[in-house]
Amino acid sequence: MKKNILGILGLFIFIFIFTAYYSEPFLSAYNMQNLIKWSSLYAIMGIGVAFVIITGGIDLSIGSVIGLVASLMALAIKKGWDPNFAVVMLLGLSLGIGLIHGLLITKVKLQPFVVTLCGLLVYRGISRWMTDNQTMQYPGTDKLDSLFSGKVLMGSFGLPAPLFFLIVVAILAAIFLNRTIWGRYLFALGNNEDGARYSGIETDRLKIVAYVICSFLAGLSGLLFAYELDSVQPAQTGEFYELYAIAAAVLGGCSLRGGQGTILGVIIAAAVIRLLRNSINLLGISTHLEYAIIGMVILCGVAADEIIKRVMARRRTAQVTTARK
Amino acid sequence: MDAQPSLLKVTAIGKQFPGVQALHNVDLTLNRGEVLSLVGENGAGKSTMMKILAGVHTPDAGTIELDGKPIRANSVREAQAHGIALIHQELNLAGNLDIAANIFLGNEPHKAGFIDRKDIHAQASKHLKRVGLAFPTDTLVADLTIGHQQLVEIAKALSVDARIIIMDEPTSSLAQKETENLFKVVNDLRSQGISIIYISHRLGEVIELSDRVSVLRDGENAGELAREEISHDAMVKLMVGRDLSQFYQRNATEPGEVVIEANRLRTSAHPNRELSFSVRQGEIVGIAGLVGAGRTELLQTLFGITPAVGGTLKLDGNKILPRRPLEAIIAGIALAPEDRKQHGLVSEMSVRENSSLPRLRVDQKAGMIDFSAETNVANEAVEKMDIKTPHLEQVIQYLSGGNQQKVVLGKWLAMNPRLLLLDEPTRGIDVGSKQEIYKLMEELAASGVAILFVSSEMEEVLGMADRVLVMHEGAITGELDRNQLSEETIMQLATDNKAAA
Question: What is the CATH code for A39-312?
């Protein structure tokens, strides 16, 4: 697992130094702030979906949940709701969405892909309908500004608020996954659901928890995104973000087969994806190539990981058999 | 027979799987028109050997000669081209297609890519006749009984001109009548000059059918018996490698209080059958029966995997009806399941994580894992069970079957169960580990645990059980005390042959 993180960290450092060398504005405070901010937002989504992927599932609805939460937040402020109340309600809504996903998957036994694909369509549709598909400005409210887009100054360099959200989320997530019995259970059930059940693990409940965490973090990042973007387009905000989140989780060492993943890996991978976009812009590479480059890097990363794993497994088998003789 | 070279000559075959040397230096010969039986305990390497001959696996070492010429079969298709066909234990037919389509699946006679329907049915009925099946060739395979489906499989092998047909446990799910019919077909094929390699646990069948018996033990040749030498005791001695009296050490003691008592229990697999039985402290009770008799389902019901649909269950006099494994575990029940890989282990996790999995909940501190307690649990399991692993962090799938099973048992011992359920506890493991597991069962019983175990190995049932429940089609058809036990009585009850019993 540690080697896994070293690989992705190496990739990050390589792209970082490469871009810093060829592009002067890359290291500017403004660019760095942006990079940290967006990487943090991606990482929060990525951590959410990592929980689901560790159980062997998938969540395709993240982008739509982000869009829905962002749209409803704008709507609530426009309607004059108390912003704090709206935040609580919307986080509650995200939890509810995750709960519904989890129940449909475990109790009705629908496939996660199908459930969350329908979620993707449904929440996007609701966002557009409730807002009349109007782009909405996001009026700042004093009450939330300090929380969501405040900066902590370190000298003249301001650290963006999403970073602090990420730090809290990451620490909690890492403790949950690595230190609690439920984290261990998640890995166990992702690896072998029947085996986990036969050991007395309540697999259904844990899977539901994973989907709830995922949707909750999607909702949280929806609020943060909305604040960063200053305006919400119900048809577009958050579109495709589920794919970035899944890409970050996979590049960060989660296996779609379940049972594997680290929080640190996901965070670094999210940063790599943002960094790539940033580099493509700054290095003057045609932005039309952006998707292609990101896709290729993820593919190569995952392929390298798989090959290394296979070589390691073979070496281990050889060791075991020679030890036996 | 020695005048001409053997049809098939296998020399010094070796095959290795991750963590297991499945076959080592195995020789085998097969003559024309001969029925050779391959026997050995589970995990002795019979299936691996057959899969190598059939092109499913490729050997790491050794040679295979057919008619004196070396061959290499890297795929099932290549093996078929050499005239070798394998009939799997689980049949590989497409139930939604008719008999003719199944016989020629993947081998359809065609004209420019279009299947020649007339030809297919004409040829199919020819092959069907050879196995004595009188069904129209457009009958759907799903509408046939298992026994008839098996004959279709054999017809399929004949359609590709198989000269060697390998049958892997062909009677494991057949009724008495179907078995007799199969024997007739086997004898017919032998007289047509086709050679048959017959794999079975049922030694009675082996005695009836075989021209010769070859015994494997722990992936190596254990010996061969010519027609006149074949007997039950001779085979068992070669299979186990020593006299039975030394192998099983069960010294039954006076059992204590009743631990588990089932009263008219009904499982969801056989909701119309009522099961009543009890197991006492320190007692080892075996459940015998054929595949599909409902033995595994009974254990799964007791463990809460598939909740009971009726009846009552008492543990130490208290009513329980586990609806989930966790409820059974909390009540003091443990299950070492039949399918280790699917149900018993989390194969990508370490020895430590596997052996502590049920115990984590008990040792937790407000949800946090108590890592030192976990390491203790794992160390204790390794020590007590004598698990051979380089270290606690070894990923479990790289251990041998025997050591994996010890981890499964170790993780349940950490829970101090009142009732231990074992489903085929020694399936696929080496003789050494087997004996250790028997010893452990002894010790646990002596310490007052009630043990209920399912086994398809007659020797194991006869050797280990204080009492045997025999099941047939979901019902308990008989209960035998240790002094009433014999292979014949058990088989008669297992096939529900009441008149004979």
Answer: 1.10.3470
pLDDT at B499 over 50: no
Those of residues 175-194 in B touching chain A at CB distance below 8 A are none
By CA distance, what is B388's nearest residue in A?
A324
Report how far apart the first and last C-alpha atoms of chain B are (Å, whole number).
41
pLDDT at B501: 39
Report the pLDDT value the prediction gives residue B432, as an integer from 0 to 100: 77
Sheet holding B284-289, edge to edge: B333-336, B419-423, B450-454, B284-289, B467-472, B475-481
Q: How far apart, in whole angstroms, are the C-alpha atoms of residue B495 and residue B470?
A: 10
**Which CATH code for domain B257-332+417-501?**
3.40.50.300
Confidence of residue B25 (pLDDT cuts 50, 70, 90): very high
Whether the CB of B337 is below 8 Å from some CB of chain A: the reply is yes
B346·A317 Cβ contact <8 A: no
Find the helix packing angle between A161-179 and A263-282, rounded to 10°.
Answer: 150
Cβ-Cβ contacts under 8 Å, A194 against chain B: 342-343
Q: Do B19 and A321 touch (CB under 8 A)?
A: yes
pLDDT category, B3, cuts 50, 70, 90? low
- Report in angstroms the alpha-carbon separations of B332 from A189, B82, B132, B259: 22, 55, 53, 10
Contact B324 A202 (CB under 8 A): yes
What CATH topology corresponds to B8-246? Rossmann fold (3.40.50)
Say how far apart CA A229 and CA A138 lie, in whole Å: 8
Asked if pLDDT for residue B214 goes beyond 60, the answer is yes
Tell whether A194 lies on the interface with B, counting CB pairs under 8 A.
yes
Domain ranges of chain A: 39-312
The pLDDT tens digits of the residues spanning B77-117 come to 889 889 999 988 777 888 899 999 999 887 787 777 787 88
Q: Does this chain's domain B8-246 share its CATH topology with B257-332+417-501?
A: yes
Alpha helices in B278-368 (DSSP H): 295-302, 325-331, 351-356, 360-363
Q: Which residue of A180, A188, A317 is in closest CB contact with B19?
A: A317
Q: Does the beta-carbon distance from A320 to B19 stay under 8 Å?
A: yes
Task: Give the mean model confidence (pLDDT) for residues B257-275.
Answer: 94
At a CB cut-off of 8 Å and minimum separation 6, what does B330 contact?
A: A200
Cross-chain Cβ contact B342/A259 below 8 Å: no
Nearest C-alpha neighbor of B295 from the set B453, B179, B146, B89 = B453
Task: Flag if B369 and A184 touch (Cβ within 8 Å).
Answer: yes
Instruction: Give the nearest chain A residue to B342 (CA atoms).
Output: A195
Angstrom distance (rounded) from CA A179 to CA A173:
10
Which residue of chain A has the CA closest to B16? Answer: A321
List chain A residues with CB under 8 Å of B411. Answer: 199
Domain boundaries, chain B: 8-246, 257-332+417-501, 340-416
A55 contacts on B by Cβ (under 8 Å): none
